[in-house]
Write the structure tokens for this entry.
Amino acid sequence: MLILTVRTDKPESEIGLFEDNQKLGYEVWPAHRQLAETIHTKVASLLKSNSKDWSDIQALVAYQGPGSFTGLRIGLSFANAVANSNSATIVGTTGEDWLEQGIKMLLAGSVSTVVLPEYGAPVHITAPKK
């Protein structure tokens, strides 16, 4: 099973490509404010360097928080969209062992339809000014 992993909760974003639990490639880059502009190209490059295509992705593991409000929204929107467009399985995990935990969940048959962010605190939305 070809698995794409995504973590976007901090300024340095991470993506990985795994065949079951064997790592094919992994990249960490300083995405910061360019995450929405770079995540697609980083994944495309990772797929190409492993002679894979977007349609080969069968499952995703996404880090769901806690972390940056905007980073999590972008990363999880991306992961959910890829999963939906490929009819791929997706799971969300947290904690330091998020990657291993997520791959174990996928290989054990756990599935989610959508991964929602866990921000770690209530979201603070500023009241509109009059």
Remarks:
- DSSP finds three helices and five strands in the chain.
- The mean pLDDT is 94.
- The first helix runs from residue 35 to 49.
